[in-house]
Write a structure and sequence with these properties.
Layout lengths: L1 H20 L6 H48 L2 H30 L5 H34 L2
Helix pairs in contact: 2-3, 2-4, 3-4
Amino acid sequence: MKTLVRIAVMIALTYGLLRLTGCEPRTNDQATAQEQVDETIESLKQERDELAAELRELQRSIDKKITILEKNIDKANGDAKRELQEANKKLLHERKEVEQALEKVENSTEETWSDVKTGTRKTFQDVKREFNELADRIASITDSDDGK
């Protein structure tokens, strides 16, 4: 009889311990928290993709301007040629900055995204401003060269 009681107690104790450590379905709070995490990650990916697309578009614009500029350098003479060569050098430098920023964006993680986004946005704005200024300067050089 004692053995039977011991077995019953052991079974009850084992069952109790298994219930305490067993897996239970997620509660609504846990499910909602996971959904929020998933939404945040998706939002970060979308921001990263949008910024990468903006950088690629800027890169294409710079490449087009470099192609046009190289043709104009071949036609130019004297001071205009030197100024166009200097502008070309700056455009190549700006293109390299965009390339590096794009690489940072593409290699960023959820943990580093905030810092990468801030730095890359600033780089994007600076390069875009410089690109527009150079485009205006190039246009004025080529326009004045055409008039000679």
